[in-house]
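Quick one - inputs below.
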Amino acid sequence: MIVRPHLCVRLIALLLCAGRTVGAQPPADSSLAMSFGRRPPDVRGVAVDARMAADLALGIGSTFRLSSTPDGLPETVVVAAIFEPRADPAEISRTAYRVRLHLDHLQQLTGSVDRVDRFALRVNSANRQAGIGSAALVDSAIARVNHVAFGFRAYRSSDIAVQSSRTFLVVERFHRAIGVITVVASAVFLLCLLLLTVEERRRQIAALRLMGISSTTIIRGIVFEAALVSLLGSLIGVGIGWTASALVNWHYQAVYRTPLAFALITPGIVAFAAGLSLCLGTLAGAIAAWRLVRQPPLQLLGR
Amino acid sequence: MTAIIECQNVSRTYQVGSSKVEALRNVTLSVERGAFLAITGPSGGGKSTLLHLLGAVDSPSAGRVLINGRDTSEMSEAESTRFRLNNIGFVFQRFYLMQTLTASENIELPMSEAGVGKKERRARAMELLQYVGLAGRASHRPAQLSGGEQQRVAVARALANNPSLILADEPTGELDESTGLDLLELFSRLNRDGATLVFVSHDPLVARAAREVVALRNGQISSSGAKATSGLT
Amino acid sequence: MRASLSFATLRHHPARTLLAIAGIAVAAALLLDMVMLATGMTDSFRSLLLVRGYQLRVAPKGTLPFDSEATIEGADRIVATLRSMNNIVAVSPVLGASITLPDNPLSSTFAIGIEPRVQGDYAVESGADLDPGAPLRVHAQGLSTRSLGSQVISAVVSSRFLERSRHAIGDTITIAAGIDAQLREVRTSRRVVIRGVARFHYVPDETPVMAISLGELRALLGNNYRDRVSLVMAQVATNDSTSVESARLQIAEAIPKVTAISTETAIRQVEERLSYFRQLAFVLGAISLSMGFLLVSTILAMSVNERRGEIAVMRAIGVQRTSVLGMVMLESVSLAAVGTVTGMLLGVLTARWLNTILGDFPGLPPSFEFFVWSATATARSMALLLVAGVLAGIIPAWNAASMPVVHALREEAVG
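Output:
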């Protein structure tokens, strides 16, 4: 089977297999096993992502033809493993399939002999000297590599991660901004409603005041009521939010065919949302009550 | 004199929950043009119900109410509203002025609904305010007026479209005795000027001001007739 | 008179009215922003693609322009084929690659090789452009050539390049390609004079970039790139979608080993990738509409409830149902109208704020915007909110007009 070029097969070389492999366990002499020092088999094994396997009806043992260019000389390969893509947010919108090959196989296929895109290095902690932390060891290693480097540079993985996660920092800031706007709108809405609700009871409040009930007691009662309503509203809101979050995850996981969770509800988020709505509701109730009790009772009665 | 209102065996029954309340039972009443009638009786006797029927605000469950010869139960909702606008003036116990409008604007409201032009209705409103003795309070809002003054504005509003009939439901109910007397004097003057007035009240002062009194008890007329003397004296 | 009563009612409760307007304004602002977001990305991207009038992009088979490091082989023949097509008036080949700057604080930069005469990648902001007569192919003397002659070539760079390389217009620097890490040598190098600073349409502001002639870049990169480009841009004679699509199909048939992408196709594909924002815009827009609706209907419902006695008396003294309906609807529309207008102004401000946040997306072309103001978007938002305001007022207005007069009078008398 020839893999059509327009399906965007991307060839990625791995030194180490990352990600989970699913499907049947490859045989002991898997053609995906490390082949240093051994003559590679005639038909070499590759690992394909689960999406590609599903779309092209590939299973373990299926063969297809691979080339580095649309009109290049294709090579027959066999599916040795099927892997689930990592839940990497940076990858979700990409429609390209992923295929993993042995490094030497990809180098040979693309004609890029003795070339790689990057190396990943792990500092040997056994060499750690007393009193020197692993961070210092990594910095030292980076400095040494860069000192002798020509045409390449070494970076901390965490620094690369910060760079590559800039997208999500931007999205996070955007979401936060939207959150601020909706909180402001909700606060205004809440204040308006509570104002109306309390004002509807102006005669009741006037009667209480005329009876001798203090303003403080009245305010306390109204604030308590507002707090109770806010609390109940928060609980309902959390329920709605949880349902919406489940729907969002269900929808986008299907759309992007990823196990990535798009919306997360954590205890901290629930506490923040409930706390904020409780504060806003209580504040709105207090303002509404204060507005009313500072008017003379007779004025409240319209006299 | 011709009858402006004719009630013929009028009954009115309300459904309250699962039970029926007979607010009026077989009431027959005739009000002549230019009359000054007071409908009295204890609370819950059906006075307000009768007034609402006389004002085409409500329809009888049985019988007929004819106002200026027109059967109110044959009128559609829009027709009865139009009829009230052009023929009947209402005065209520609680004044019911629009709090957001000035005294003059409150009087102009029915005229505006009747399609009277702005200049004309403004002039008429001032004339009516003059009539009720509140010429200087045209631009005051109800909250700035006393109870008596508010009721006078309500009377002026009731007169806005030159109605042939003025109906008042406990007009002195919210007023003190002195203010109530002043208001009744105004009503008497209206009647002397040709207005037909029907009042509902349990206030004996009102009954004394009227020339005819009908007593209503348990939804039925218990007594009726002209008084030997009329007015407040 | 009815209008006076409606406005007077709103003025009578200033706090409530102002809060309602504020609530509607925030909802309106959010709605406008979401409408701008839903349409802005497409409009912005379209403007970006058409900034120099090229409606078609020809990329390596199965890829989007500069989506991968793939290049098109046999580029010169492909360019000639495109130029021979009747309906194509301009063809601009582009090669992109990473090159090094030896002994420079900026160790490497992105370079694009272009034909200055037809290039559509940048607009010179200061200094001078490249010589329009720069050759398509420079004859290099094999792979071992270290320096391609002593002639200094011209370059146009981005302002970020100048900043990071600590150079200025007029400076001469060395560029190189083909690093041999063992010999610690570069395969080829060239002396370059910076002629001008340009704004590169498709390269993010934070990325240093240099533009030199296509021939010079090919020579620098070596024989492998002698006849390669990353992308070819083509301009169709007539700008209508039918002609562009016809040209695209013609290219696909004539040159099967490439992918021809029209502006509309590119927009569709980018929209797919940014579909999250459109969906978010739709959801938030719907929520803000609902909020505006709820706010107006709640306020009116409570306002009508407060004025039961007044409304009953109005009906009793002869004010028609339609008049009462009209008065309440006028309140509803007034709240919605004032809130909407205020919200439009607020929405423009919040859109600028949100655009600034999203503008930090890495890899975004400088002129790409997420929120693009348009009269259509504003009119659409305003219309939606006004309709919502009208609808929100219908039920309270109907309730007011249909109020049983006697019942209400009785309640008020008792109450």
